[in-house]
Amino acid sequence: MSEFNLVKTLRDRGLISHITNEDNLSKLIRNNSISLYCGFDPTDESLHIGHLLPLITLKRFQMAGHRPIILIGGATSLIGDPSFKEKERIFNTNNNIDIWSKKISKQISCFLDFNLGKNSALLLNNNMWFNKMNILSFLRDVGKYFSINTMINRAAVKQRIMRPDQGISFTEFSYNLLQAYDFFILNKQYQVDLQIGGSDQWGNISSGMHLIHRKSKKEVYGLTMPLLLQSNGIKFGKTESGTIWLDAKKTSPYKFYQFWMNIEDINVYYFLRLFTFIKISEINRREQKKHIENQIIYDKSFLAKNITRLVHGKEQLLAVERITEFLFLKNIDHIQEVDFQQLKQDGIPFIEVDNIKDLQEALVLTSLAQSRTQAKNMIISNSVSINTKKIRKNHIFNSQDKLFGKFTLLSRGKKNHSLLCW
């Protein structure tokens, strides 16, 4: 019997929103190597930071000797989970879902170990069983175990039913049963005892446990984690605005890093507990020192580096550090051409240029100044830089201003930048 209590560790780190029969689950995973799963519907080409907690939690279970199973919802993504969505999702094509399934599978493979013996991660797609099932079989073998009264009263459904302008279609209403059947099949064929997910999945997870209990007379478990919310209280999702993607082509590693650097101070140590594998004792030690000058900034950087390395790898973290050094510490020595592609993607505003008369015109074109007169005054007041070097008079651009023959960084003060792409 292991002395390590994984459930207690998850709770201490703030990673549990709901859990069923905590004592029994704790004993089960302390005495046995179990299989657990989490589902991901490929409704876009990339996962986002809202998916990080389930992925990291799966990794924690694997590190503790358990077998994580990833279920790609090739079938369920054709329907779309209505949980706490204000309106019906737009249906996606089979072709898109196939492409997105492959991309998301590749992303997930970076988080888990698929070559670890008996607790190697396993990746499945629920097309494997739903493509073989017809509607009559589903209604007889699954639907008969569920009460419409109970399903209507689930918070995720009730929210939509109470909105006469939206309502909920039978298609979306059936999603709950589809996910329940996923859990049933995984328990039957792969001995999965635990499903995890975000707290918005509690209704779906509960339905899966109910179906297994009714059909197989087995006890299985559910565990959910808190949702990652934006500052406006809306959860991070693929259909919400302000999404921070895990795909470097959709959100550059630099912008990803800056997201964590710009979180509210109150969340720094909470996020260190949620998203990193740093010992709680070390996080507590840091939190006790948070009132020391610049300690919060240092710990934000510590958080940002840890998560960026986890998601994007060591090389991309080094690129982020070069860009940060260039923009904020005015050190141009280590910047590389590829780093400017990140800045151009989503790091700072940029404009494509061919010929610019002078610095004053450039400041106006980049909206760093509203007029040539304002630009002139900014230059005189020593607040304008070209490639981190202060400029004290109007300037005519030359080849030396074009880093790698392509890029010029204009700055107004410390935080306002724009990139000229020649």
UniProtKB/TrEMBL annotation:
<dbReference type="GO" id="GO:0005524">
    <property type="term" value="F:ATP binding"/>
</dbReference>
<feature type="binding site">
    <location>
        <position position="238"/>
    </location>
    <ligand>
        <name>ATP</name>
    </ligand>
</feature>
<keyword id="KW-0694">RNA-binding</keyword>
<keyword id="KW-0030">Aminoacyl-tRNA synthetase</keyword>
<keyword id="KW-0963">Cytoplasm</keyword>
<keyword id="KW-0436">Ligase</keyword>
<feature type="binding site">
    <location>
        <position position="179"/>
    </location>
    <ligand>
        <name>L-tyrosine</name>
    </ligand>
</feature>
<dbReference type="InterPro" id="IPR024107">
    <property type="entry name" value="Tyr-tRNA-ligase_bac_1"/>
</dbReference>
<dbReference type="InterPro" id="IPR002307">
    <property type="entry name" value="Tyr-tRNA-ligase"/>
</dbReference>
<keyword id="KW-0648">Protein biosynthesis</keyword>
<dbReference type="InterPro" id="IPR054608">
    <property type="entry name" value="SYY-like_C"/>
</dbReference>
<comment type="similarity">
    <text>Belongs to the class-I aminoacyl-tRNA synthetase family. TyrS type 1 subfamily.</text>
</comment>
<comment type="subunit">
    <text>Homodimer.</text>
</comment>
<dbReference type="InterPro" id="IPR014729">
    <property type="entry name" value="Rossmann-like_a/b/a_fold"/>
</dbReference>
<dbReference type="GO" id="GO:0042803">
    <property type="term" value="F:protein homodimerization activity"/>
</dbReference>
<feature type="binding site">
    <location>
        <position position="37"/>
    </location>
    <ligand>
        <name>L-tyrosine</name>
    </ligand>
</feature>
<dbReference type="GO" id="GO:0005829">
    <property type="term" value="C:cytosol"/>
</dbReference>
<feature type="short sequence motif" description="'KMSKS' region">
    <location>
        <begin position="235"/>
        <end position="239"/>
    </location>
</feature>
<dbReference type="InterPro" id="IPR002305">
    <property type="entry name" value="aa-tRNA-synth_Ic"/>
</dbReference>
<dbReference type="Pfam" id="PF00579">
    <property type="entry name" value="tRNA-synt_1b"/>
</dbReference>
<protein>
    <recommendedName>
        <fullName>Tyrosine--tRNA ligase</fullName>
        <ecNumber>6.1.1.1</ecNumber>
    </recommendedName>
</protein>
<dbReference type="InterPro" id="IPR036986">
    <property type="entry name" value="S4_RNA-bd_sf"/>
</dbReference>
<feature type="binding site">
    <location>
        <position position="175"/>
    </location>
    <ligand>
        <name>L-tyrosine</name>
    </ligand>
</feature>
<dbReference type="GO" id="GO:0006437">
    <property type="term" value="P:tyrosyl-tRNA aminoacylation"/>
</dbReference>
<feature type="domain" description="Tyrosine--tRNA ligase SYY-like C-terminal">
    <location>
        <begin position="340"/>
        <end position="419"/>
    </location>
</feature>
<keyword id="KW-0547">Nucleotide-binding</keyword>
<dbReference type="Pfam" id="PF22421">
    <property type="entry name" value="SYY_C-terminal"/>
</dbReference>
<dbReference type="InterPro" id="IPR024088">
    <property type="entry name" value="Tyr-tRNA-ligase_bac-type"/>
</dbReference>
<comment type="function">
    <text>Catalyzes the attachment of tyrosine to tRNA(Tyr) in a two-step reaction: tyrosine is first activated by ATP to form Tyr-AMP and then transferred to the acceptor end of tRNA(Tyr).</text>
</comment>
<keyword id="KW-0067">ATP-binding</keyword>
<dbReference type="GO" id="GO:0003723">
    <property type="term" value="F:RNA binding"/>
</dbReference>
<dbReference type="GO" id="GO:0004831">
    <property type="term" value="F:tyrosine-tRNA ligase activity"/>
</dbReference>
